[in-house]
Amino acid sequence: MLIVKKFGGSSVANRDRVFNVARRIIEDYDQGHDVVVVLSAQGDTTDELLAKAKTYCSLPSKREMDMLLTTGEQISVSLMALALQELGYNAVSLNATQAGMYTSSSYGNARLKNITGERITEELDRKNIVIVTGFQGVNRHDDITTLGRGGSDTTAVALAAALNADKCEIYTDVEGVYTADPRVVKTAKKLQEITYDEMLELASLGAKVLHNRSVEMAKKYGVELVVRSSLTRAEGTVVKEESTVEKMLVSGVAADKNIARIAVVGIEDEPGKAFKLFRIMAKENINVDIILQSIGRNNTKDISFTVDINDAYHAKEAIEAHQEALSFESVSVDEHVAKVSLVGAGMQSNTGVASKMFEALYDAGINIKMISTSEIKISLLIDERYTDEAVNAIHEEFSLGQ
Ligand code: ADP
Ligand code: ASP
Ligand code: MG
């Protein structure tokens, strides 16, 4: 059997944790399985490197940031190979170039395109435990790229698909996927199973337990995932196509603070203005999420929308640069907003879910700034200060902890 095991940053944060993981790897190897391990950078290494870069350069280039950030994973894999060797096992660490993990050329947020994996197979044939750097790739210019924050999960799923692995296990610092972030909601309940679609929504809406692209890829290639803890033996959560456990109306609540609201006030109320505004965003490659247009008055209207927090000022500048064509009064950015979302495949056939969610926030005295719904989720934009309170209120209203 071929097993891909991925361990996140906290699971390999220090020497004790590295040896703890090494022993878990050995358990599988000793049973005669081929083991490929994917690792993230130790603890907060990636954040620390990011902060360090900012003290050297105010606007660091993406290429150099990728060179810098990928060193974190390189430290983890070599230390793990050393720990395994210390325990008397043959292990070899490989970076993305050696493992043949080819990506698009966009630094900072590259997409995996092709995995040759020949070297991995050769090393497995030599009975080595193979340790691969998560989060990184190599592009056609032979430059190192990164897959975006949290991208090691995607490395693991991609390798599991490319190598046709029998199992793909994602080890982290919680015991699985919960009905809400267990660090925020004390009564959050671990899910035995969750479908790819629900997990994809939760991950995309802010539940960082899995990188959303890893779920997308798992669905595409039918890779069944298990999310579980590296510190306990508890059974984790299985992420798969169809859930066999009783269908729940709602599977979870997620929150995302990394967004900002752009408000364009006093746009001339005539056909084509919204089109022009969002064409500018599209040209600038800025992803727009929730959109709200006010009812026109005095021949003007207001349009507000949310974007990723990292795109907010870029979006504002681009709009201001088109002041003449758009003819508006002012444009402002509010970074202190959060999106709180409820996800569940059962929602599409149930009325009253939205009103129950509004009621939860009303009872908690939290104002709703924007609303967006789809078949399987409802998202509300609120003041960032009340995020945890809102998540708890919604979780409670839908009795998700029971
Ligand atoms: P790793 O370093 O192992 O990749 P992450 O920090 O990226 O770990 O993801 C794990 C964290 O995700 C947990 O510590 C938890 O706080 C958070 N999280 C958010 N939403 C959920 C959820 N619904 N279920 C489980 N964990 C969640
Ligand atoms: N180390 C990277 C990050 O912190 C990748 C990962 O953890 O998955 O984003
Ligand atoms: Mg992660």
Explain the overall architecture.
The protein has 402 residues and is of the alpha/beta class. The chain has a domain at 2-173: Acetylglutamate kinase-like (Carbamate kinase, 3-Layer(aba) Sandwich), CATH 3.40.1160. 35% of the residues lie in helices and 27% in strands. The chain contains 13 helices and 18 strands. The chain has helices spanning 15-30, 45-56, 62-86, 96-99, 118-125, 152-162, 196-204, 212-221, 273-283, 312-320, 323-326, 353-363, 387-397, and strands at 2-7, 34-39, 91-94, 101-103, 112-115, 129-133, 136-138, 144-146, 167-172, 193-195, 225-229, 237-240, 252-268, 288-293, 300-308, 330-343, 370-373, 377-383. The protein has an eight-stranded mixed beta sheet with strand order 3-6-2-1-9-11-12-10, sandwiched between helices. The chain has a six-stranded antiparallel beta sheet with strand order 14-15-13-16-18-17. A two-stranded antiparallel sheet has the order 4-5. Helix 1 (15-30) packs across helix 3, helix 2 (45-56) packs antiparallel against helix 3 (62-86) and helix 7 (196-204) packs antiparallel against helix 8. The two termini are 37 Å apart. The relative contact order is 0.10. The model has no long low-confidence stretch (mean pLDDT 95). The structure holds adenosine-5'-diphosphate (ADP), aspartic acid and magnesium ion (MG).
